[in-house]
Amino acid sequence: MNRRVRDKTSSHESRVTSHAPPGRLEGRIVASYGRRYLVELEDSSTLECVTRGKRGALACGDRVRVVRSARGQGVIESLLPRETLLYRSYRARQKLIAANVTQVVIVVAPVPTFHEDLVDRCLVAAEAGGIAALLALNKTDLPQAAAAARALTPYRDLGYRMVAFSAKSDPGPLLPHLKRRTSVLVGQSGMGKSTIINALVPEAAVRVAEISAALDSGRQTTTHARLFHLDADTDIIDSPGMQEFGLDHLDIAELAEAFVEFRPRLGSCRFNDCRHLAEPGCAMAAACADGKILKRRLASYRALAEEAVRRSRKRWK
Ligand SMILES: Nc1nc2c(ncn2[C@@H]2O[C@H](COP(=O)(O)OP(=O)(O)OP(=O)(O)O)[C@@H](O)[C@H]2O)c(=O)[nH]1
Ligand SMILES: [Mg+2]
Ligand SMILES: [Zn+2]
Fold first, then answer.
1. What mean pLDDT, rounded, does the chain reach?
2. 85-238 architecture in CATH?
3. Ligand 1 environment, Cβ below 6 A
């Protein structure tokens, strides 16, 4: 610290600019609370920020340019290009989950019961977003764990990586899958996403507790996304539990492409524009009849595709 500069400047503002370059700083959003964001700067300090202009279009993990406004506070001036974006959508409304992640960890557990339909939707969103997916079965200490593991085997057969563990007793098996990645934990409420974070990040428990006390909600459920560092090149984002996963931004072709087992068969249907709904000569239907595509997965695709058809009809009315 330069004592002379410090002595000459009495206000905090000018002292800050004396050792930070004037003008813009770059940082990463490590927490998003509605319209407020916590931005971590390159020196690991954080600023509580608001945005100028476009509201609600930023996600945890986003890289941004900020300017300081007051002690510990700043204004987000602009968003830097994203490598990936995971989001849900309902009609034209987007719900951003996380930006710049390289892996989506879909957390499931035997209790409460997880819904395969939601797992399918998370996988579709990850595939469509160009993000690797990992299935994480938590709470293996519970007696129902074997049945839950069986329910997940079709996904392993599709080539998805899978890991099973108990966050309460030992989240260790998950660690090698997280190394050198930026992962976001997603899934239904109560699957144990925050428990995993607390088990892996020693200081997280304190912070999570502080936040819920501040909100005075009395609930343990996660209300906003938050990024934690596991080590210098490993980050993990906790996200609020979800009951549904809207995928209104995907059209039929994108949906079909996001079902990995469809990919080698795309282009083999009788009609070039086959939607794989009920068209004759559909290669997906044929593969399903042969037991090569699971009935449940085809049904899951069709439910999504029918929604997409209804949306496009509405648009042309
Ligand atoms: N038996 C058992 N219970 C667990 C385990 N991990 C988490 N739980 C329990 O599951 C419940 C939900 O855990 P959370 O970590 O809050 O779940 P979450 O997925 O973060 O939930 P939301 O924030 O609402 O999305 C808590 O009561 C945990 O104690 C585990 O490995 N074994
Ligand atoms: Mg949580
Ligand atoms: Zn087809």
1. 88
2. 3-Layer(aba) Sandwich (3.40)
3. 138-139, 141-142, 166-168, 189-195, 220-222, 240-241
